Each structure stands twice: as C-alpha cells, then as structure tokens.
Amino acid sequence: MVGTGKGAEHGILIKGGEHLERAHRIDAIVLDKTGTITQGQPQVTDLLSFGEQSSQELLALAAATEKNSEHPLGEAIVNKAKELELSVAEAEDFQAIIGHGIAAKVEGQQILLGNRRLMEQNKISIARGAEALNELEASGKTAMLMAIDGSLTGIIAVADTVKEHSQAAIAALHKLGLEVWMITGDNQLTAQAIASQVGIEHVLAEVLPQHKAEEVEKLKSQGKITAMVGDGINDAPALAAADVGIAIGTGTDVAMEAADITLMGGDLRGIVTAIQLSRATMGNIKQNLFWAFLYNSLGIPFAALGFLSPVIAGAAMALSSVSVVSNALRLRWFRPHF
After folding, report:
1. Which helix (DSSP H) or strand (DSSP E) does residue 236 occupy?
2. Run of H or E residues at 310
3. Are the C-beta atoms of 227 and 245 separated by less than 8 Å?
4. Is 160 a catalytic site residue?
5. In this structure, are residues 137 and 189 in contact, taking their beta carbons and an 8 Å threshold?
6. Is residue 216 within 8 Å of 30, Cβ to Cβ?
7. Which residues contact 196 (CB under 8 A, 6 or more apart)?
8. Separation of alpha carbons 66 and 82, rounded Å
9. What is the model's pTM?
C-alpha cells in the first residue's frame, strides 16, 4: 500500500500489488521508438524530386494521399503542406498497407508512398534514389519513397526528435543491470542511428505492428523477465504479452488499459523510478518478514516455558505489528536516483 501510494506521488499508477512486486524482477526492457523514446511529433525535413514535378508538387500529392491517414508520418506531411499553404486535391481509392505504406489515386495518377518493401512489392526500381535514401536513413530520418504510375519520383524524409531525458533514463536502466531493447517498424539504418543517440545496443527493426508481441514472447522464451514500454494502439498486444506492461500516459487509452503500470508523463525516467520503487518495496517486505520471524521465534520458547503471561504476549504481538508498519512507512522517504 505504501509502495503504490508512493508511486502515485511520483506520477506512476500501478494497477495492483502483484505488478509492483513483479517489476523488481525485470531483467530485459523493450522500448517502442515512436512516442516513447522520441517525441512522436515528426516533421518533414527533406523533399527530393527525381521526376518532372517540383518538390512542392510532390508534397501536395503526398499530402492528398496521406489526408485520410492517421499515421504520425502522414500527419507530418499534411501539416507541412498546410504550413506552405499548398492546394491539396482529394484522393480516391485510399488504401493503407500495414507495415508498408499507403496507396491512392490523385488527379488520375496512381500514388504509392511508403518504404522499400512497398516498392519491392509493386516491382518499382529505387536505384536512382538509393544513395540519397541511405544517407537520410543513416542520419536517423525516416525516408518515404514516392512512386507515381509505377515509377519512383521522389523521397520525403521525416525526423522525430529524441525526448530530452531519454538518454539519461536509458543510462540509468543500464546502471540497474537491465538489458535494454528498442523495437520499431523503421528500417535497420534509421533504427540504429536513433539507438546510438540514446545508448541502446539491442535493436529490433522492421517489426510490423502485429509482430511486436511475438518479439516480446521470444525474449520471454529465453527466460527473461520482460517489460514492454509503449504508447500506441499497436503497442497494446505487446504490453499485454510482457511480464510487466508500462504505458506512457501521453499516449492512447488502449495502451494504458492494456498496461500494468502507467507513467502519467512522457518522461522515461519514470520507468527507472518504478523499478527502483519496486526494489525498495520488496526489500522492505523482506526486512519485515525477517524481523517478524525472528521476533516470534524468540518468543515461542519463552511462551512454552511459561515465562510470558497473556498480557505480555499480547503486548509483544502488538509491538510486532507496530514495528512492521513503522518499517513500511519508511518508504515515504523514498527518492529516485538517476
């Protein structure tokens, strides 16, 4: 009770005592990239055209294609078009291809906007954009390939900034002896660039949303006690699959419902606080068990030999309870350290 109450004071909502208890045993933690390690508010940084269209014409077509999309990358493109006050047409036959990108028809032109896999699936050569694509991805940007009527015509790069305290939080998790993983749908180059910025060595890249839970299960099958940290709808199955699911409170309601612990803010240092609090609480419980066991073990022989009257025995039991409660209340002085 004291532990969960103290967690609430630090903006950490714990659904039950069993989740607080399990958290001290975590040895591997999986962090979603977008919205967890990063701000989740990507912005368009580069517009490259390989065809007759200007970069702004490409952006207008991309915005028309993405207008019906709810993906953060799509929102970034639409917002950029609004910022430049571009005229955006209406799209027809919109289709979201999970883990690949989107397709739509705009002004009679068939538009494809997405990753390498989308282009490969539609047998579109990306040779003329390969060098630029590699450079953008190596710098940590998410590059989206755009094809018009079956031919590569441009690249739109979007960047999502890392949260202010992400690096410090991950360093603190390493100090706690935890194995830290990053999971993302981004390609290996982009994912590795972000991971290196924040000090993560283990990267799970190009993971489709529906496969995130499977990756968590793989870690569990290796005997690891896992925690999954995420904020989106597609993180919910992985949050439920992990031994401890931790949701970012700035994310979706679905993620918070699936998680065991919710951080009210977006600061990843809350994860460190939750684990330190769990360890402090379990340490306190063990102290209480030890002293209560010792106290009673010493009292039993005296009672058996008739040296304890019922009045003294009752007082001794009351004192035992008071000592346990008093020791538990020491948790009120808990302070996280990073």
Report:
1. helix 236-241
2. helix 310-329
3. yes
4. no
5. yes
6. yes
7. none
8. 13
9. 0.81
Beta bridge partners of 148: 111, 151
Residue type, 199: G
Three-state secondary-structure class, residue 115: coil
Tokens 């993302």, residue located: 184
Checking DSSP bridges between strand 142-148 and strand 109-114, what pairing results, if any?
Answer: antiparallel
List pLDDT tens digits, range 86-139: 999 999 999 988 888 999 999 999 999 999 999 999 999 999 999 999 999 988
Sheet order of strands, 202-204 included: 12-14, 261-263, 244-248, 226-230, 28-32, 179-183, 202-204
Hey, what are 135's tokens? 């450079």
Q: Which of 27, 32, 186, 267 is catalytic?
A: 32
Identify the CA nearest to 166 among candidates 248, 91, 261.
Answer: 248
Q: Which two tokens stand for residue 287?
A: 């102290």
Cβ within 8 Å of residue 37, ≥6 positions away: 31, 162, 163, 166, 182, 194, 198, 268
Query: Using CA atoms, how far apart are residues 22 and 68, in angstroms rounded to an integer?
Result: 41
Gap between the Cα atoms of 145 and 80, Å rounded: 17
User: Amino acid identity of 260?
Assistant: D
Tens digits of residue pLDDT in 298-322: 888 888 888 878 888 888 888 888 8
Cβ atoms of 260 and 2 within 8 Å: the answer is: no
The rounded distance, in Å, linking the Cα atoms of 333 and 314 is: 30
Amino acid of residue 10: H
